Amino acid sequence: MLIKNENRIPLNQIQHADSIYLSEIQELDHELFRSFGDSILVDNNLTRKLVSFQASKSRSYYRWYKFKEAFSADLVEYIFNKYHFDSGRILDPFAGSGTTLFASADMGYKSTGIELLPVGQHLIKANLYSRIGNTKNLISELESFLSEKSWCREGERSTFNVLRITQGAYPEETCKKIQRYLSDIRKNANESQQILYFALLCILESVSYTRKDGQYLRWDYRSGRSNGKSTFDKGKILDFDSAITGKLSEIIKDLYDKNIDENLLFKVDINADDSEIELLSGSCLNILPKLSENAYSGIMTSPPYCNRYDYTRTYALEHAMLGIDEGELINLRQSMLSCTVENKKKELLKINDAWSKALSICDNTPLLQKILTFLEYKKDKKELNNAGISRMVRGYFYEMACVIQESYRVLSKNSYMVMVNDNVRYAGVSISVDLLLSSIARDMGFSVENILVLPKGKGNSSQQMGSHGRDALRKCVYVWRKVK
């Protein structure tokens, strides 16, 4: 089903001084929308459940850790069935929890993932450990550890790292049991130790006073952290015993149910070039230029959205438990794709001077430049709710252009690049991320096969709605193909 462009800005809701900017942005947006013709389609098979973690909640392995930013394995299967992906190696430059890697491997592909955040790296490695080696021995060791419940008895404790933003995150009794648990898992073999540590990461939020809430951790009033000012109630805070018992039981059940033939297991070596699943740790801006040309038969990914979410903060409990200190957290934040207001400008040409092409394309994309000019104008008038928004939006598109350039280079001819992303809104203007990134991809040499739109758009933030009214924003899956 073809879609109409509904980026309409009620001029009676805006100041007259802004109306010229906004009407020009609206016209450029419509012009770019029309340039894609019938490539923009509403796909009624796409649902918010499919393009999020929700559809993975009932699937073995994928359900263990609730990585809210992930899309589902069902989506990977749907896309690979809808479009023909040649046999070979699949790449995900923003691997997250590894959904693309494992789902494509299940379909017979080799896969490579690039991931910056330590939490994502650990999730992928733990999932790999659960799929390799002697599954029967792993199950036996996990069952033995679970039956002993040694964390319930007095004994040695291992302290764990605490960040400023995680201080006091757990009830006192929970904290003691985490320390006992950490001490005891070190007595296990490497594979089971990795899974036991992973299980702990899976339950941290549920046994804490916190809840992940986009840009930060939200604190329950029972933490005492806000001196009685917070009334937020996250609901039931699980006790450590029931949480870890439930998680380990779930993992053991999935290992049983999967009933993997040990002669047909994935061949995995995190550092091997010919492994079926390969993890490269670091920023894709640094790693992509080092990959070989024409080496990948497909890309499926979901980059951080341009929505101010700071994953170094939302995953602070996990990063603290992984031993990341304050300085490392700051470095991670600056290494991420620019998606938070704290991101500083990256010297992209110093990373790779070949990216002058990507930067030039951005410089010559009229809609993008008009939006950036408008945001600077609003910043100068002190009418942005954060002065870093204009810098963030600029950084996001210029950095994504570099990612797109490298993706084109490493893809083999006629291969697809698929991306899940959301449109956003700042200072009353809807930013068509789908159109802008697809325009950049087209100028880079990609054929824009489709921009698949979810039947229902998403609303903007409550803060935005209060100032500018509700405006449905498109959530899309972009399908580009390298034709030359």
Automatic annotation (TrEMBL):
User: Which reaction(s) does the protein catalyse, per the Swiss-Prot or TrEMBL entry?
Assistant: a 2'-deoxycytidine in DNA + S-adenosyl-L-methionine = an N(4)-methyl-2'-deoxycytidine in DNA + S-adenosyl-L-homocysteine + H(+)
DNA methylase N-4/N-6 domain segment(s): 65-116
Per the record, the GO terms for biological process are:
DNA restriction-modification system; methylation
EC numbers on record:
2.1.1.113
Family matches, as InterPro entries: DNA_methylase_N4/N6 (IPR002941), MeTrfase_CN4_CS (IPR017985), SAM-dependent_MTases_sf (IPR029063)
In terms of superkingdom, the source organism counts as Bacteria
Q: Which SUPFAM superfamilies match?
A: S-adenosyl-L-methionine-dependent methyltransferases (SSF53335)
Supply one GO molecular-function term: site-specific DNA-methyltransferase (cytosine-N4-specific) activity
Mind listing the UniProt keywords for this protein, alphabetically?
A: DNA-binding, Methyltransferase, Restriction system, S-adenosyl-L-methionine, Transferase
* Homology family: Belongs to the N(4)/N(6)-methyltransferase family. N(4) subfamily.
Kindly provide the name given to this protein in its UniProt entry: site-specific DNA-methyltransferase (cytosine-N(4)-specific)
The organism of origin for this protein: Legionella londiniensis
Q: Taxonomic lineage per UniProt?
A: Bacteria, Pseudomonadati, Pseudomonadota, Gammaproteobacteria, Legionellales
